[in-house]
Amino acid sequence: MASIFKTDDGSWRAQVSVKGKRKTKRGFSTKRDAQAWASDLEREAKESTSSDIPDRPFSEALERYRDTVSVTKRGQKFEIRRIERWLGKSADEPADPLCFISLQDLQSEHFAEWRDRRLQKVAVGTVLREWTVLSSICSQCAKEWGWLRENPMTRVKRPKEPEARTRRLLPGEFEQLMIATQYDIDIPPESKSERIGAAIVFAIETAMRAGEICGITWEDVNLERRTVHLPKTKNGNPRTVPLSTTAVKVLEKLKTLDDCRLKAFNLKSDSLDVNFRKIRNKCLIDDLHFHDLRWEALTRLATKVDVLNLAKISGHTDLRILQRVYYAPDMGDIALMLD
């Protein structure tokens, strides 16, 4: 039975006894808000004691999801790495407190506490990516395994999406990167550093992601038609990307190299990212990610093709995302088109 009190400062306080433990929350502006909080807590406590929910720690749900669901995904490497970190299997931090909570006791407040802990340590974007994984695990527990009655994260406030990055290459930065990588488009890029340079040029010319560039095989390339076919992409849909004359030239030089007979660039995406950051730091360039080259490319392409063809090139099925995140035409240039 919940107890509701009005405090001296005019706010309301609610008190609930759950499994012999007294829980109190202060600062409600109305009695109705206090009663709603108490009712939710009592309902969650009642549901959590249901006999059909197994008395297992949440860590077992993480492990089962890792071993049966994550391994089937294209992005399994990064998802498994996140789950391993929560389980305390990484060297830099212990297991997350969520791991030790029984599924019978798991409530929305536990995920609210997790959210607040993570926001103190990492950026909002990181929390949102982790949120997606955790919510998927909870949904799997509820819908497929019978380990939860519902996904408790649906009642937790999701952090606000951060502003989309708008970083483009500044004057002189491209030239710095080419000097640092020693890449010359007229010479086959034999070293890894030179291939990083080739990947930079290719990204700017095609708006392809790092993983897509590293995954190109010669079977996917048609130099006569100037296209690259991507059978697997981030959103799961295949697409064909048109190639500029510069992009074709990059591929033609790569094709002459013996160690690029299978994969065009013979680079791994994580290696590309790490080495790009090293080269960027060597050039004393601040806050530039390899993925920012996609923004750079799409902004340039927007001056050459309409937005529908731009979406075909980028692979966006939702034009709102393309407009909000990548499509950033110069309004001064558009003003000139009006005359």
Order of SSEs: EEEHHHHHHHHEEEHHHHHH
Tally of domains: 3
Kindly state the percentage of residues in helix. 40-55%
Spatial strand arrangement across the major sheet: 1-2-3
> Quaternary status of these chains?
single chain
The first-to-last residue Cα distance is: 72 Å
* Total count of helical runs of at least 4 residues: 14
Q: Class of the largest domain, according to the CATH hierarchy?
A: Mainly Alpha
Can you say what the CATH homologous superfamily of the largest domain is? Intergrase catalytic core
Task: Report the radius of gyration as a whole number of Å.
Answer: 26 Å
Shape: elongated
Number of strands: 6
Low-pLDDT runs of 5+ residues are none
| Strand-pairing-aware structural class | mainly alpha
GO molecular function: DNA binding
Keywords: DNA integration, DNA recombination, DNA-binding
Domain Tyr recombinase: 164-339
Protein name: Site-specific recombinase XerD
Explain what the structure shows.
- The structure is a single chain.
- By secondary structure, the chain is mainly alpha-helical.
- It has 3 domains: 3-48; 58-155; 173-337, hpI Integrase, Chain A.
- 47% of the residues lie in helices and 9% in strands.
- It has helices at 31-48, 58-68, 76-86, 108-119, 124-145, 173-181, 192-206, 210-214, 245-254, 269-282, 292-301, 307-314, 319-326, 331-337; strands at residues 3-6, 12-18, 21-28, 221-222, 227-230, 239-242.
- A 3-stranded antiparallel beta sheet has the order 1-2-3, covered by helices on one side.
- Strand 1 (3-6) and strand 2 form a beta hairpin.
- The longest helix has 22 residues, at 124-145.
- The protein starts with a strand and ends with a helix.
- The mean pLDDT is 87.
